[in-house]
Amino acid sequence: MNTGEALTILKEKGYKYTDKRKHMIDFFVGEDRYCTAKDLQVFMEPSYEGISFDTIYRNLHLFDQLGILESTELNGEKHFRLKCAHHHHHHFICNNCGITKEIHHCPMDKISEELQQYMIDDHKFEIYGLCPTCR
Predict the structure, then answer these.
(1) For the chain, what is the domain count?
(2) Tens-place pLDDT, residues 4-19
(3) pLDDT band at 83, cuts 50/70/90?
(4) Which run of H or E residues covers position 77?
(5) Which CATH number does the domain housing residue 110 bear?
(6) Virtual CA dihedral for 58, 59, 62, 63, nearest 10 degrees?
(7) Which is nearest to 29 in space by CA: 18, 40, 41?
């Protein structure tokens, strides 16, 4: 997903375009890792002096709810990254730096055989550890 696609989603869902929202999305477009609200606040502060943590968090949750971002829990804290809308995959996530690596194998291929009588709405599969740099 790119900035334009994300802003289109906001507009289609009835939310206003603002420079702050564009700036926030631009941050995630440039990252290949899960980031915290604090990471985003540090990025935003030079351009929006005094931006509140509440504003950051409210927009992160809106973006997550709209499918612009995806979220995960790392070390008891919520982390976010731009949603990859082009193909189905899962992630290895470094517990130290938050960098991700795509995993193209989906365990649901096997698991769905065991759940034939069940209706599956969604799933999430993540592997956690240390990347080569943090090892």
Answers:
(1) 2
(2) 889 999 999 999 989 9
(3) confident
(4) strand 77-82
(5) 3.30.1490.190
(6) -150
(7) 40
